[in-house]
Amino acid sequence: MLFKKSIAALSLTTALVLPMIGAIPAAHAETPPNMLVVAHRIDDLISLDPQEMFEFSGTDYANSVYQTLVDYDDRDFSKGFGPSIAESWDISEDGKTYTFKIADGMKFASGNPITAKDVEFSLRRAILLKKTPSFILTQFGFTEDNLGETLVAKDDSTFVLVTDKKYAPSFVLNCMTSAIASIVDSKVVQEHEVDGDLGNAWLKVNSAGSGAFNLTSWKPNESLTISSNPNFSGGEPAMKRVIIRHIPESATQRLLLEKGDVDIARNLTPEDVAGLADDKHLKVQQDLRGRVMYLSMNQGDETLSNPKVIEAIKYLIDYDGMADSFLKGQYIVHQAFLPLSYLGELKDKPFKLDIEKAKALLAEAGYEDGFEVEFIVRTEQDRLDIAQALQNNFAQAGIKVSIIQGTGKEILGKYRARDFQIYVGVWGPDYPDPQTNADTFASNPDNSLEAKLTGKLAWRNAWPATGFTERTEAAVQESDTAKRAQMYVDMQKDFQKEAPFAIMFQKTEQNGLGADVEGYSMGAAITGSYYGNVTK
Amino acid sequence: MTSVDTTQGVRRRKAASPFLRVAKRIGASLFSVIATLFGLLFVTFLIARVMPIDPVLAVVGERASNEIYEAAYKQLGLDQPFIVQFFYYVRDVVTGNFGMSNLTARPVLDDIARVFPATLELATLATIIGVLFGIPAGVVSAVYEGRWPDQVIRFIGLFGYSMPIFWIGLIGLMVFYGKLGWVGGPGRLDIFYEDIIPSVTGMILVDSLIARDWTIFWNAVSHIILPASILGYYSLAYISRMTRSFMLEQLGQEYITTARVKGLSETKVIWRHALGNVMIPLITVIVLSYASLLEGSVLTEVIFAWPGLGNYITNALLSADMNAVLGGTVIVGLVFVGLNLLSDFLYKIVDPRSR
Fold first, then answer.
1. Domain residues for B85?
2. DSSP A486
3. Nearest CA to A488 among A96, A174, A181?
4. Fewest C-beta in 10 Å: which of A66, A208, B89, B272?
5. Do B178 and A255 touch (CB under 8 A)?
6. Sheet bearing A151-155, strands edge to edge
7. Where are the domains of chain A?
8. How far does A31 lie from chain B, in Å, by closest CA?
9. Which residue is closest to A251 within chain B, CA to CA?
10. Is the pTM of this model over 0.95?
11. In terms of domains, do B90 and B162 share one?
């Protein structure tokens, strides 16, 4: 077992300096039945304002505290979006005007009724605040100057949204489910406005929503506490209180879970997950996440822009070998840029490790003796493990890899400046619509250095995405959802062949739960976690 | 006339001199404090600017558009020359404004006021443990030099010094919290006790005493005792080794032999004469180890989910949150300067010659 004799002997030594410990009363209890305690790494959270936040833990928070015009059912994401604050909607003939009918009788946590005015205020606020995630809405042509025509409450129960051109309705409505489109209580927020900040300073640390919970307290890097909202349209949740404790270390999270001091542990390493298997009081829940792990080649580099070299490299990756060993439980093999479970997903996996084929391709390209190349990688365990495995595989075909590590910010700086040869890293979708990844992987309207389209991965890799840019544009305007999905499938098949991107894996997440915890939803690849339907 | 004038002048100078001397001394130490802090700020600021990390990205995130990026770049003042940036920064710091942290989006001073008490509490308790056990252990070790008590103590010390804190921390948690349930788990309090007592000093042990809430006090003790003991173990290892070597040096001196010949009891010779003379260098050792604990201990803080200064500064460094790094550096600098002054003061108490 874990506590072998030798370890017991060592801990005795530690006991020598802890002689006073026996005198301290141990005060421990199971977590109360109406309270959910979660161990989670939440140091990424910097603001609780839904029109500003753009962090992973922020998405969980928005799912708990705010509602949107349309939303997913957290018990079944395959249904797609459905009514929430809007009970129904119509789209005009030209595909540009969306008229939402606001549901009757819904209330904010404050008791104020939810009206079209609140919707107007919230969506306009997202545009006016100009925070990082605002692009999710401004991509429909909303600007500070045209808000009077584009985002308008006709009366208390009718809200009208006008886009600048025709888009696929699935695209527009998928974006309306993201955190930035959260509807805030306009009366409460306006009461706390300071110097025309639209209540930003206040909403960073307070809540004004209509979701399953309200904010009770937030202590950065310590804990986040939310309490049930009796006015919630889905009925007050069974958990009166959810406490999310910032516990950075996996082993510590596991210990708290085993001890019964937390109900859910969110950041467990595969080793710690495996360690939970024997415990009857615990269980493991697994779900897909939206992040894809990929390798990309800078097309400004002479060698790496050779199509034969690009193809060879895709055969030099031991996809299954990595997924079955050190990535087990963290990633599954996936070779298309849209995450599985997204509209237009492609399940094909045309590549596998094939050294001979890669060698032949390299010889055709004139590199029978290989070449030297540099990877840039963030100093994070899974990425470094992957980079090292790739280094070994590449060496078998004569390609000598040196790995440059750095902090996230360092590597990102190089990547955005096109100052690299091969990048190994992760991309996570910004909003739950295929456009988010298509737009970054497969669209690059101006490949010139001066264009500085640093948000697009195609640009960062100096890849002109010829043909793909137009196809991306066409797909985002297709109003027939089935046709639109097929367009993405076809596009990804060609992308797999041509693009200087080798998509390798999709993220999966494993959470440890107390055996009595039911109804917890991890949000699939689409969004973050939901605590609203949890019972225990 | 002239001679009279001179004598008067001399007399006056003599009369004013004690006051002047004190003022001069205060002035000199104040100057050295300010110069130290200024130098510290300058070097940190310089390092911050040459670091290969883009502070703007740290603010706006990976997905930001160019306009948002440019706006943040200007807002951070990065378009100004280095020296101008530094000047603005120093001007703000002098008026007590350390700027906003990009990482927490709060004023750096508020952040530090939140994380420093947690570290202070932990470091103080750890140092107390280190001193209470380390000095006697060192003395015993020196007295029994080469015999089994010395060997045992040195082994324990060496063990404490060479084991990775990550490992000891986790094993400690598994055994005393996980298996035995003797101590509280990670964090400063059980969650059910959080937010009950008003925060006065930010140190929960002190705050709960002020509120006279014994349940919370004991809960806080059960949470702090393990990390404090583990940090204390490290400082114990250091303090006992230093005490041992100082003591060995003293025990070989002639005055010790004289004292023994005089017929003084062995207890008096060791604990009074020898240890008395060891106190001055020992104070330096203790103060330095206390100061290094006050910088915060990142690994201990991570394992025990202790929201302290070490973790705060490390996170800030890794994400190029320069205001937070500079603010944290100034605080650590102040701690060192403050503790140096404290040790000067302590020398005067223990050293009869400087009274």
1. 3-94
2. H
3. A174
4. B272
5. yes
6. A86-91, A97-102, A158-162, A151-155
7. 45-207, 289-508
8. 9
9. B170
10. no
11. no
